[in-house]
Amino acid sequence: MSDLKYTTSSTLLKRANTVAELGDLPSNGVNVIVQNKLGHYLLVHDGKKWSLPGGGIKQGETSNRAALRETLEETGLMVIGKLILVADVQLVIKWKHKVLLFKAIDWNGIINPLMKDEIREARFFKPEQIKDNPDIYRAQRVFIQIFETAYLKLPLPVYALASDPPVIEW
């Protein structure tokens, strides 16, 4: 994967802190970064490839509630404590998407996907197993790269474009 490009924008930072623009795009969703104490990432397998837990935001549902629901449904784990907004990501795969990327600070439970018709397996991956792994959806690898490159260095929500190379603005 190419290095990320960076620009700064106070208005984009404000945009990353709000979900007001969610209605502007045809498809809206959430993904959640869940890590164990070793820093490994929890990924789920949909029968084709691996991804971060996540999915669509239902009508009338907040993005936080969607993140909590999707994590529980796809992994069997319950997020406890805080969910932190990491990034507001725009990507185009057949159509334009807006994805809010969250980080689960703490969780409990046993990995056991509840949505067995959607998720075949869930397990932790070491960071070095993720980069350039063709069995993980490219957009998901980009989301993890955004988290590692931007958020871990400057823990503020960022606005990102999942392009090649990805672009981060804050």
TrEMBL record:
Species of the source: Candidatus Yanofskybacteria bacterium RIFCSPLOWO2_01_FULL_42_49
Record keywords, A-Z: Hydrolase
Name assigned to this protein: Nudix hydrolase domain-containing protein
The protein's required cofactors: Mg(2+)
Limits of the Nudix hydrolase domain: 25-148
GO molecular function: hydrolase activity
PROSITE patterns: NUDIX, NUDIX_BOX
Source taxon at top rank: Bacteria
InterPro entries per the UniProt record, alphabetical: Nudix_hydrolase, NUDIX_hydrolase-like_dom_sf, NUDIX_hydrolase_CS, NUDIX_hydrolase_dom
CDD domains the record matches: NUDIX_Hydrolase
